[in-house]
Every structure is written in C-alpha cells, then in structure tokens.
Amino acid sequence: DDGPGIPEAALNAALVRGVQLDSKGGGNGLGLAIVSDIVEAYGGRLEMANANSGLAVTIHLRRHG
Question: Among residues 15, 16, 32, 39, which one has the fewest Cβ atoms lying within 10 Å of its Cβ?
C-alpha cells in the first residue's frame, strides 16, 4: 500500500465487513475482513500498522506438527 495509511483509531474498523475507509476506491470494504476471517480460521492473526508510506499488513500463522 502506498497511500496515507489508516488513522490509528480506525485500524479495527478496517476489519469490519462493509466498512470502506478509502473514499477514492470503488471497493466494497470486504478485502481485509475476509483475509482476517481466513487467517483466524487457521489459528493465526492479522497485524496492521502504518508504515513509512501506507499500511503494512502482516499475517502470523502457527506451524502445525
């Protein structure tokens, strides 16, 4: 992502289905919510943080076996 990032107070809202924080795009506010659901289904977690430019999303998965 090379945009301005997401205000810290709105980071959790980015994971709610249907919430679109970028008023420029034509999306539906589903992307990060779906990714978060999939990651959680596999026992992982999604971490978001504003980077030098834009938003950095890190997925943490546990190794099984």
Answer: 16
Q: Which two tokens stand for residue 61?
A: 């998965």
In a domain, 2, yes or no: no
Query: What residue numbers bound the domain in which 51 lies?
Result: 8-60
Q: Residue 18: pLDDT band by 50, 70, 90 thresholds?
A: confident
pTM of the predicted model as reported, rounded to 2 decimal places: 0.76
Please tell me the distance from the alpha carbon of residue 23 to that of residue 60, in angstroms, as a whole number: 29
Which residue carries 């950095």 as its tokens? 56
The DSSP code sequence of 31-53 is HHHHHHHHHHHTT-EEEEEE-SS
